[in-house]
Backbone:
């Protein structure tokens, strides 16, 4: 069964970006996804409350910024989610080849 938290396109993309980039900044996510500050914040909050990502606040050059990383649970659940998606894709390919 597909993870309902990940099964929302922006959250899937957020997880993929953070998976590929350690210490992903809020700005990088916002620029990559082309979403509003509020929209991104809500999705990040859902992922963090579920225990899939963790945020860290840092100060650099007198400016505060937030970075995100996947938790161990987040990595495991994201792998499981992607595996389920892959199974669905393979099933569709098999069905298409049978016709």
Residues:
């Amino acid at each position: 069964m597909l993870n309902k938290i990940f099964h929302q396109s922006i959250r899937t993309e957020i997880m993929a970006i953070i998976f590929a980039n350690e210490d992903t900044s809020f700005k990088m996510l916002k620029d990559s996804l082309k979403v509003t500050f509020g929209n991104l914040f809500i999705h990040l909050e859902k992922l963090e409350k579920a225990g899939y990502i963790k945020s860290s606040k840092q100060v650099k050059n007198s400016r505060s910024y937030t970075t995100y990383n996947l938790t161990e649970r987040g990595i495991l659940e994201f792998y499981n989610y992607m595996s389920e998606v892959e199974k669905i894709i393979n099933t569709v390919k098999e069905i298409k080849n049978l016709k």
About this structure: The first strand starts at residue 24 and ends at 25.
